[in-house]
Amino acid sequence: MATGIASGSGQLHLKEPVYWRNSYGKAHCRSNVILNGMQNQIHWSSWISKVLQVHRSKYPQCQVKTNWKSYRGTIKSCQREGSTRYFDFAVIGSGIAGLRYALEVAKHGTVAVITKAEPHESNTNYAQGGVSAVLCPTDSVESHMQDTIVAGAYLCDEETVRVVCTEGPERIRELIAMGASFDHGEDGNLHLAREGGHSHCRIVHAADMTGREIERALLEEVVKDPNICVFQHHFAIDLLTTQDGSDIVCHGVDTMNTETQEVVRFISKVTLLASGGAGHIYPSTTNPPVATGDGMAMAHRAQAVISNMEFVQFHPTALADEGLPVRPSNTRENAFLITEAVRGDGGILYNLDMERFMPLYDERAELAPRDVVARSIDDQLKKRGEEYVLLDISHKPKEKVLSHFPNIAAECLRYGLDITQQPIPVVPAAHYMCGGVRAGLDGETNVRGLYVAGEVACTGLHGANRLASNSLAEALVFARRAVQPSIDHMNVSKIDHSASSWWPRPVAPVLLGDTVLNKVICRTREVRKELQSIMWEYVGIVRSTSRLTLAEKRIKELELKWETYLFQHGWEPTMVGLEACEMRNLFCCAKLVVSSALSRHESRGLHYTIDFPHVEESKRLPTVIFPSQLNSSWSSRQLHRQQIC
């Protein structure tokens, strides 16, 4: 991978001298490559228009009652040769962004939706609170923008914020037209809730299961579309890229069918990355098990620009199993989320002595943005030596609590806790990546033919901290905005049927034998826990330079030790297995987070460091990381060599 990207068409253009951080390395000063530290502020969108130029002229929780098959029906223009599939569009991810995009581009070509597990298993399906949109006459786009920018610690891009806040309401109406059912008030209008950081009631919701309802509606539409094929249990391994002069071009993706271990290659004219976040770099996360940073890592290895990875949002209120009357018998794969809307509806945070503490930290108290609330809880836990705090909504009418939060009430009651009578034990957990693959206003990246939407993308909307319920709105808006440029690119592109032979194929490690393979898997699971422990201990809610530096060192040593173990046991660089590839991606994302955190010498939003405890106006700039040829580890390079066209 190239350390810097040469000037030329479709590449990164920036005249001003700027600072960059060699991936996982030290800061240097150089032109044409970027990182936090630019002396002259550059507007995100105007910068993006220069930086992310794409040349188009030359080239069951969600109960959807259907029998999912990898191939449904016959698609005339969809072709297959052995283990290679050819599509106009490849969509990696089956959450709100991927499905909404697929439904639109399917009007113009064949679409493969590639999903790691069951189609409904996505971050979208676990989203409780709702979608933020200006739908009340007393609210305004300007007010929503201001709330977003304040929550984002003034690192948000104003043009991106305006786009999402302006186009969001129409995207909600489209969902309703598709059959999504949201809560209505007694007056027949949509019931709009309020959450932390919002100055108005603007959260459209379906009780406390909004994401599940949206996923249901979208999947039902996908089932009916003859131009869309859903490939479930297909794990995306690496993007297929070539170098065309100074351009990097995406031609599709290699995947592995995790049920058959078959490697399946998808060749496509356009690829949308909508694979979600990387919550499982931490030991406790509200994300589903599939959120292992696969898309971010693949994009980084493919030389896509990555931005703002230091801003990891810890949701303040995940259910603390330690405080339940009856402890769950098994360890959860992901923490159970207690939605922001509980505090928006009047929930109060107490320590274990039933002392309300949020007013001591912020005048907005429980309605402060998530970063403030999470740090406040973290401070209480450390000062008092306790494992959790309490969130109490029991002072509200029982009927209202049960109607607004039926899912939370049912989950807590399973373990002997009645939320209408007792406070809920809560603790912060990793929840959302505000950083990701750098995207322009149409979801374009610096890799030609590759678009991004959803949590995997960094659009500039969230800045240093995401405002509650803005994520689903962003996913809807950017999935829709990526449609037309994708169609334009598709129309001037052709499928080269010889392309499938351009890259060597990954192989399943069957030659290792079951005994060796089981040892590798067992060791990989141990390493995963070690990495998660390092990230929580040294790269958590409150950070320091010394602890980040130690994390960087320990992660590098752990990765080298793990890779050495693999290769000593016969593993080869082209071998792929689910556990090993996930581990590869977790290492990649963890290093991106640490590297970005070390580069930001201030405390802003979700990134708080005791060595630089204040906001510095001169550093109000995004952090950007490019790939580097120095990244020789398995997690940081593609399995295949980049092809030259």
Flag low-confidence runs.
1-77
Estimated share of beta-strand residues: 15-25%
Largest sheet: 10 strands, mixed
- Give the fraction of residues assigned to helices: 25-40%
Q: What average pLDDT do the residues reach?
A: 86
Q: What is the CA-atom radius of gyration, in angstroms? A: 23 Å
Number of helices: 17
Structural class: alpha/beta
Total count of strands:
23
Outline type: globular
CA distance, first residue to last residue:
16 Å
Characterize the structure shown.
It is a single chain. By secondary structure, this protein is of the alpha/beta class. The chain is built from 17 helices and 23 strands. The strands form 4 sheets. Strands 3, 4, 5, 9, 10, 11, 12, 19, 20 and 23 form a 10-stranded mixed beta sheet that branches. A hairpin with a 2-residue loop joins strand 10 (234-244) and strand 11 (247-257). Helix 2 runs parallel beside helix 13 (470-481) and helix 4 crosses helix 5. The longest helix has 26 residues, at 513-538. The chain is globular. It starts with 17 loop residues before the first strand and ends with a strand. Residues 1-77 have low confidence and may be disordered.
Write the layout of secondary structure elements.
Blueprint (H helix, E strand, L loop, with lengths): L17 E5 L4 E4 L13 H8 L27 E3 L2 E9 L3 H10 L5 E4 L8 H4 L4 E2 L8 H11 L6 H21 L13 E2 L9 E2 L5 H15 L3 E4 L2 E11 L2 E11 L5 E11 L20 H8 L4 E2 L4 E8 L20 H5 L3 E3 L7 H4 L8 H15 L4 E4 L5 H7 L1 H8 L10 E10 L2 E3 L8 E2 L1 E3 L4 E2 L11 H12 L1 H9 L21 H26 L6 H24 L9 H22 L24 E3 L16 E2 L1
Parallel strand pairs: 1-22, 4-5, 4-12, 5-9, 10-23, 11-19, 12-20, 18-21
Antiparallel strand pairs: 1-2, 3-4, 6-8, 7-8, 10-11, 11-12, 13-18, 13-22, 14-17, 15-16, 16-17
Family: Belongs to the FAD-dependent oxidoreductase 2 family. NadB subfamily.
Catalytic activity: L-aspartate + O2 = iminosuccinate + H2O2
Cofactor: FAD
